[in-house]
Amino acid sequence: MTIRGRLLLAMSWLACRLPEGPAFRCADLAGDLWYRLKPGRADQARRNLRRVCRSLAESGRGGPRVRAAATDPKALERLVRSSFRHAARYYLEVARTPSITPAFVDERLALDTPELIAEAVVPGKAVLFVGLHFGSLELAVIFLAFRVGETVTPMETIEDPGLQAYFERTRGVAGIRLVGLREARRALLDALRSGIPVGLVGDRDLTGGGTEIPLFGAPARMPMGPAMLAVESGVPTYGMTVRRAASGHYRGRIVPIDVPSEGTRRERVTATMTRLAGVFEELIADAPDQWWAIFFPIWPDLEAATGGAGGDGEGTAPEAAA
Questions:
Q1: CA gap 299, 216 in Å, rounded
Q2: For residues 167 and 124, what is the distance between their CA atoms, to the nearest angstrom?
């Protein structure tokens, strides 16, 4: 194992043993420091959040914080700073993954859509769950795995073998089976045909093969993988998120996605992508500052208007994506 991998294991060991309160406060301080040290990344988040908040406010969605941020620069800046804290919390949650137990999930995760979840999350039932880079992505997939026994999800291969081994080990303990992006399509279809649920994220085009779909009022390039998998498999499909609530608690939500059964394959995939984008808007409206895709380019027109200036070249934790 590389030095970096050993360091991550040591940090994870420490994070799992720190009291929760101090650990969360350290993450918030790290988020505040990150906000101050990375003005380019803050600019990126600011541009994206401004569009999200204005679109939500114009359509009568979002809470008071969102509506205020649509017109008040100070309110928008508070949301930008909050997004850095949530991103830091995500990294802490990744480090604390080995300590998550079924009892923790039962105690901390409240369900906004319990009837839908009871219907969808059933052992032996093939269901496709499409998430975002939002809230506690780790807890969302772990919840599925604890409920059904096994969940299959794709993950990009990391250059550092130590880091790759860490994620395979920690996610594997919870019942999450990882597959590489190259073999993802066949592996995910095989899993669904075997009655194993699949979870993946679909809000960032990582491979460059996506297509532009309206998102918050403007075309955004989104991956085609989730929609293609939904159309090809024919299984029930849901958008899914777990967002952070107060005092170390979380709230989970799923929204059904209507996958058309008529039309050409291309028409069905495009329609599914459009409907998925609408579901993403609905889920993001709950807490836009927890959508950490805002740290990266989303809308080509915003990037063109700023000369293509993006963030600071930082990456995120390994993603479950297709």
A1: 10
A2: 25
Q: Report the 10 Å Cβ neighbour count for 6.
A: 12
The closest alpha carbon to 241, from 190, 195, 292, belongs to: 292
Tokens of 53: 């908040």
How many CA atoms, within 13 angstroms, populate the side-chain half-sphere of residue 306?
16
Positions of E strands within 43-133: 109-111, 128-131
Positive or negative: CA dihedral 21, 23, 28, 29: positive
**pTM here?**
0.91
In this prediction, residue 181 carries a pLDDT of 81
Burial (CB count within 10 angstroms: exposed 0-12, middle 13-18, buried 19+), residue 122: middle
Distances (CA, A) of 296 to 120, 130, 202, 244, 274: 32, 20, 14, 21, 21
Q: Compute the distance between CA of residue 108 and CA of residue 73 in angstroms, rounded to an integer.
A: 34
Q: How would you classify the pairing of strands 237-244 and 250-257?
A: antiparallel
Residue 171's Cα: distance from chain center in Å?
Answer: 16
Give the mean pLDDT of the chain: 90
**140-170 per-position pLDDT tens digit:** 999 999 999 889 998 877 677 767 777 777 7
Interatomic CA distance for residues 130 and 194, integer angstroms: 19
> Per-domain residue ranges for the chain?
3-305
Of 167, 228, 156, which is closest to residue 192 (Cα–Cα)? 228
Neighbours of 264 (CB within 10 A): 8
What's the rounded Cα separation, in Å, for the pair 94 and 141?
12
pLDDT-derived band at 312, boundaries 50, 70, 90: low
Q: What is the phi/psi pair of residue 267, to 5°?
A: -65, -40
Q: Are 92 and 27 in contact (CB under 8 A)?
A: yes
Q: Are strands 250-257 and 128-131 parallel, antiparallel or unpaired?
A: unpaired
Q: How confident is the model at residue 314 (pLDDT cuts 50, 70, 90)?
A: low
- HEC profile for 165-186? HHHHHHHHHCCEEEEECCCHHH
Measured between alpha carbons, how far is 39 from 34 in angstroms, rounded to an integer? 9
